[in-house]
Structure formats: C-alpha cells, structure tokens
Give the backbone structure.
Amino acid sequence: MTAPTVLDKFAAAYLRVYQSLHSDAAEAQWMPGRTPVLREDTTERSKGLTSDPVPTTAMDGRRLNLRAAVMEAEKALSAADQALRLAESKLRRAFAQVESEPSESEPLGN
C-alpha cells in the first residue's frame, strides 16, 4: 500500500469537517452547553420568577466558541471549493491542449 497522497489527505479532512458540521455541530451551535454553568452573580435560587433561558443560551461562551469554529470551517470549505474549481479549470484546459491537434504556428519539437 502506498502512502496517502495529498488528494487522499484532503478528501479525508473534508469528510471529517463535513461530518462535524452536519451531524455534531449543526444543532449544538444554537443550543446551550450540555453541562450547567455556575452562576457567579448569586448563590440564591430563583424566587418563583419565570426563568428565561434565551439570554443565558445566547451568551454561553461554549456555544459562542462552537459557532465561531463552525463559521471558520464553513469559510475554509468555501475557500477550498474555490481553489479546487480553479485548479479543475486549469487542468481541463491543459489536458485539452495536450489532446488537441497542434496548430500550424506551433512547432512539433520535442
């Protein structure tokens, strides 16, 4: 078996990021962390008022870190997509030139 090529490594990394984005992080980036966070502002429990979890969820540092990582991964995939499209286009043009008949102005040299 040969060593992994650049293409193999890229494909494996792409699949890992895709899997993380679509199964692990898809919903988690919008939810609070699974473990409770200690409140630093008080040692008392609520006195019967309705608790609003939205601000706590919105400002959860763990969730914000995950959201930032998701956005960074999406940007990386977008940049990789653009780079690969450009590389594909260049490869197609170069291959078409190799496969085409030489024009009369091109020498048939070595």
Notes: DSSP finds three helices and no strands in the chain. The two ends are 35 Å apart (CA to CA). The first helix runs from residue 6 to 28. The chain has a mean pLDDT of 82.
